[in-house]
Amino acid sequence: MPRDIDIVSEIKERVDIVEAISRIVPLKRAGANAGGLCPFHSEKTGSFYVYSDNQVFVCFGCGAKGDLINFYTRYYNLNFTEACKKIADEYGIDWTPGGSFTAADRNKPYYELNKRAGRHYAMKFFEDKNDGRDYLESRGIDERTAKRFGIGWADDRKMTFATELSDDKNGLAAAEELGLIYMRGDAYVDKFHGRLLFPIFNTRDNVIGFGGRDVYNKEKTAKYINSAESGIYKKRDNLYALNVAKIEIGKKGFAILVEGYMDAIALHMRGIENTVAQLGTALTDKQAELLRRFTDKVVLALDSDKSGVAAAIKDMDILKKAGISVRVLKMEGAKDPDEFIGKFGKPAFEEQIAAAVPMMEFKLDVLSEEFDLSASDEMTAYLAESAKLIAGLDGVERAVYAKKLAEKTGISEEIILSDAGKIAANLGGSTDEGGYPKHVYNRQDEPKQNNGALDMVQKNLLKLFIESPSLLSRRDEVTNIFSNPMLYSLFKRIDEAAKTAGEIHIGDLRDSIEGEDEKNALNEIVKSVIIGGEPDEVLEDCISTAELSRLEYRQKEIQYMMKKLGESHDNTDDLVRELTQVQQKIGELKTKVC
Fold first, then answer.
1. Angle at 524 between CA 467 and CA 443, to 5 degrees
2. Cβ proximity of 324 and 295 under 8 Å
3. Which of 118, 395, 467, 538 is the most exposed place for a label (fewest CB within 10 A)?
4. N- to C-terminal Cα separation, the chain
5. Each residue's pLDDT tens digit, 420-441
6. Distances 431 to 260, 392, 427, 434, 517 between C-alpha atoms, Å
């Protein structure tokens, strides 16, 4: 029988339609089935249902119905063959007319080997008392939770899993490919040793990789390392704990996004089971798109320090771009979700969730911390920047935040709305991906112009911190300079390595990186960037150069706005005054930098 006919039954057999469609359309589960708003017509009350037992979908509003292939042909505007190929690519089915289904079989040995590794290290964790169990107990994680997440222990002997595979030539080759072992001299040794191991699962409950945490806080050792990226594991494409959180996300209608394994595990243990964690130092577009398949609402619960706030701002723009509504949990009295729920318990954490603030409110609050609102000129500057932020909103949202700003500052909301409206009107009402008006400076992000110069500043800073990690005591002054996501990720890795070991070892830093692009960027910086002069002076020069770039962009921006507004506009005098101040600062900085 031709394989293009067999593909229908093959897809039904291998792919659960409820899970597949829930990756595309937000659905609320009811047992094995699910329902939600129809993606094929506009509706406010859900009439779209997906049935797991017979693998079909039906909309009782517009009449759309069929199997998963029908859904793909209609949703993506594909023909039958194109829809089959897309599903096959997404679910590891190697299909062409007359071909065979081999990709899933090809991946199966890797899944099985990772599963075997997970069992091996889990047995080591539970078989007797060890430093891994002691560490996890010190973090308040109980045995039941450790078993649920498959946590394992790799002791310092370095060859336990390699030895288990010693008589399995195919297993050794696959384990080396997956980054579980490597050849040293003439023998294989384990990549993970002296580490607590966290298996990483995909949404179909296959083990795709591992994260390992050093429990000894050794010098010259990365705090976390991951198994290598492979055909079944790409860190930027996956989220930790989504496999166990997805059902609760459907029930609750939103997900909680945290920074690391321990935050996610601590929240799950205490009953906050709609929690997932990003893999890596920064959220990626792919991770946001994956999360969007399960929900369109996310509460960010990242660390409460300045770097955590900066990360939250970057993450919320990525989530918004993926079509996700974002609220931010503002924790007080704890540095991260793990510490907060450990100190104050589940009810207090749920209160924080209920009190989480919308994305724009969080941005306005963060912006206000940059100004002394008791001083009239600072208040004026804050309101000017706030007006630029809310100008990117629609009419109703703009009115809501104008009222909040009026209550905070005592300035009439009519005046605030007027200023925001003028900015939106004169700039065509267009906004960038973060929801900011285009051509209007966003204090949270670096200017879009001069990216080459700004990238060079960021690379210089990274090389400087590698050579002089003590300068990271001034991390708060430079965090917002890192507008390039890849360089920001490297900055976070370097900062973490310095906190852990007190110095930077390039080999360990390189080993902690899985993505080839990020690894190549590090290699280029180490090889090509040369720091001349005293480290303190170079740091000051980098900060001044970044500020000069920001001011030069602001100068162009003001000139553009003045041209758009015209000489007779009410705000022209204010812009002239600001332009004069900006040009004066540019002159001072050029003298300092040049």
1. 75
2. yes
3. 395
4. 75
5. 777 766 544 444 433 333 333 3
6. 32, 6, 9, 8, 30
